Amino acid sequence: MLIDYDLVRSKRSSIGITVERNGSIVVNAPQELEKDEIDKHVYKKRLWIWEKLAIKKEHNDKVTQKKFISGESFYYLGRSYRLKIVDEDSALKLKNGWFILGKKYQPKAKELFKIWYTQHLKDKIKERLESLNKNLNLELPEYKIMELGYRWGSCTKDGVLNFNWKIAMAPIGVIDYIIIHEIAHFKEHTHNERFWREVQRLMPSYIEKKEWLKNNGPDLFM
User: How do beta strands 98-102 and 161-164 pair?
Assistant: First the structure.
């Protein structure tokens, strides 16, 4: 059985395989290695790949569609807040422990939540980058908040960090981990041992945050 994958070549000495959250498979390989050799390696790892795909599917199946009605819960920075639909002309806001939304805006509630999370996350990322810079002496990178599907973040070749607007729902410590995860890609582009050592150097407690995302990630979708 053939396994479809995206091939990324780089200056490395070994082959690395990553199963993304959306079920896609990315293979990082040395620049000069023949394609046939890469295919053989992927085939040898097929059982491991299928196991990872099954785990990803199980987690993705847990994603439930939010209902934008009074009483539904929505997360912000790790805390749960209930939505209250009101008769007054009120755009989406967080007030007194409730998300408040005017009834006439209810048909566009999903879009309004995305805009609200994006705006608030932009300020929060800036705050966290400044805080991390003080502790770790990191150079402040350029960043953007956008739709990234099943990815929490990404790092471009130009050193721009992209963050999924959905991470505004996660606790601050988890947001810090996602930031550091992407910053570590400045040194290592792939998820190899050197990459995870860099993550651990920057955040010794990263495994706890990584596990939180693994277990609670589906709750951040709507």
Answer: unpaired
